[in-house]
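Example 167, ligand heme C.
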Amino acid sequence: MGVFAGNLMWIMAAGGAARETVRELLNEGPMRSFFSITVSLALVAAGLVACTDPVMPDRTDGAAFFADNCVACHGARGRGNGAFADGLQARPADLTTLSRRNGGTFPSARALSYIYGDPERSHLARVMPEFGGAMVQDLVPVEIDGVLTPTPRVLAGLLAYLESIQE
Ligand code: HEC
């Protein structure tokens, strides 16, 4: 209540009828709780805004992450011909044909879950490593199959990058 009362000091100073109105506002139960709820909500909203980084990752962020973590197997342009490719028991996928192999639509959900990995299954069950883990700390909303879905920031950037290299 202190903040709100403080803001009203100038009305109190005006005196007369205005002062009485403010007294009623401050003393009456329903109004008091209404104002304190409003102030609380405003503080919560301000807190949320302060905690959320409004800058969404884009294909440049994704390209940087891809260069650091994926090119060794998938190759600089994502065609599945990285330096390690020949030594692996499974061929790294050609990531430029994800859309074409999915009837022309980029398979966001499938690609994300594949990269993120299945926490229930062992890392050893497949050739490609799982990149989940620490990613869950920083989530951004991404529209996947028409639904805004909390998605690790690095994956959101990666998704934008992968979509941009589809042929
Ligand atoms: C150690 C090598 C290796 C690394 C590193 C790697 N991959 Fe893979 N990836 C593979 C292989 C091999 C496959 C083929 C399926 C399998 O056996 O895992 C694959 C499959 C995929 C698929 C599934 C494609 C499909 O056809 O559905 C996606 C998407 C993918 N990788 C993206 C990535 C991304 C993005 C990164 C970097 C964050 C990455 N991969 C890092 C080896 C790797």
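Summary: The chain has two domains: 3-51, 59-164.
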